[in-house]
Amino acid sequence: MANSNKPVGLTQSAGYQAGVRRTFPLPLEEAWHLIISPEGISLWLGSTALTELRVGEQYTTGEGISGEIRVVNHAENIRMTWKPENWDKPSTLQIRTIASGSNKTTISFHQENLPDAAVREEMIARWGQVLADLKSAIG
Fold it and tell me: What is the spatial distance between Cα 48 and Cα 41, in angstroms, rounded to a whole number?
């Protein structure tokens, strides 16, 4: 039985978290390329000098978001820190590509260690819009 006193999206170990996903009519490798290409990076990360995702690479965006790439597993996932200037501590963002048959791939954005429920809702809206923008990018 679920604890009705616990706010939606609040976990014991990772604070508030948010996740959105969408399935695209792309084979896994094409979806992965969409995410890691300079054009794709600008769609989900924003304006940044970062054009290649390498472990240990640090970034700052035009919106004032900063972080570090922690994990890059080809055609599987990216794990990184993500911190706007006004947050006390960074969150963890994971982007995954999950094959769904031979010609479909689910792209997932999952973020944990968010400051509060309001930020959780903001991030759900942000990553939902990013998925819509990625869909537009493939036509």
Answer: 9
Q: What is the pLDDT of residues 58-77, one digit of tens each?
A: 999 999 999 999 999 999 99
What is the domain extent for residue 27? 21-138
Q: Are 44 and 130 in contact (CB under 8 A)?
A: yes
Q: Provide the whole-model pTM.
A: 0.90
DSSP 8-state code for residue 19 = E
- The sheet carrying 105-114 orders its strands as 10-11, 15-24, 105-114, 91-99, 77-82, 66-73, 58-60
Residue 56, token pair as written in the block:
């240990």
Q: Is 102:2 a contact under the CB 8 Å cutoff? A: no
For residue 94, the surrounding DSSP H or E stretch is strand 91-99
Please indicate, yes or no, if residue 40 is contained in any of the structural domains.
yes
Q: What tokens appear for 74 in the block?
A: 């080809």
Tokens 């604070």 belong to 15
For residues 120 and 9, what is the distance between their CA atoms, to the nearest angstrom? Answer: 7
Is the residue at 87 inside a domain? yes
CA dihedral sign, ordered 7, 77, 48, 81: positive
Residue 129 lies in a domain: yes
